[in-house]
Amino acid sequence: CPTRKFLNPWRLAKIIDVDYLIEDVVAKEKLLDLEKIKCSATKLIVAVCSQTTGKVQLIDTRSCTTPLLEVCRAAMAVPVFYNRAIKIDGEPFIDCGTVLPFPLMHVLERGVTDVLVLATRPASFKEQQPSVAMQILFNRCVGQPHLAQAYAQRHYNSRIMRELSLGHIPAPSG
Fold first, then answer.
1. Are 57 and 98 in contact (CB under 8 A)?
2. Is 111 left (phi over 0), alpha (psi -120 to 50) or beta?
3. Phi, psi of 7 (to 5 degrees)
């Protein structure tokens, strides 16, 4: 979506315009067939992060009362770059990547046995702890203590998930 309507670093209140992406691109220009997704034999599970608790939650889009596009909007609501959290069933959520780039352990705990992880970085990559400046900026923009703590631990959680996905540590039993 290489357009200033979506990504504009000079629009400080909403650098990433998720609303444009959902309402114009997905709902009109590149129409997403919501009925096919609902009727699919494969469940669509969307990872989001509770803005209140800082915990990752997997949303089963079939059992959720919030419309699918709103769940997708929440999954793209990156703090600092987008101006708000999105409510799913009454609770505010943001992009899961804020605290955990990929929630592999959460998926495995749900009993999923076949997982394909497509790495976008080399196996040797190690996520670094956010700088003090980034943590201060994040804390001021978000203002949620539990979320700030989770963000500060993002690098550690990311390393664990990477080690798990590469088979360097065993998957949980069960």
1. no
2. left
3. -120, 115
Quick: pLDDT tens for 27-79: 888 888 888 988 898 888 999 999 999 999 999 998 899 999 999 999 999 98
Distance between CA 165 and CA 168 in Å, rounded? 8
Supply the pTM of this predicted model.
0.85
Give the length of the chain.
174
Q: How far apart are CA 115 and CA 147, in angstroms?
A: 27
Q: List, for residues 66-116, the tens digit of each pLDDT value.
A: 999 999 999 999 988 898 999 999 999 999 998 988 888 888 888 888 888
Residue with tokens 């691109």: 25
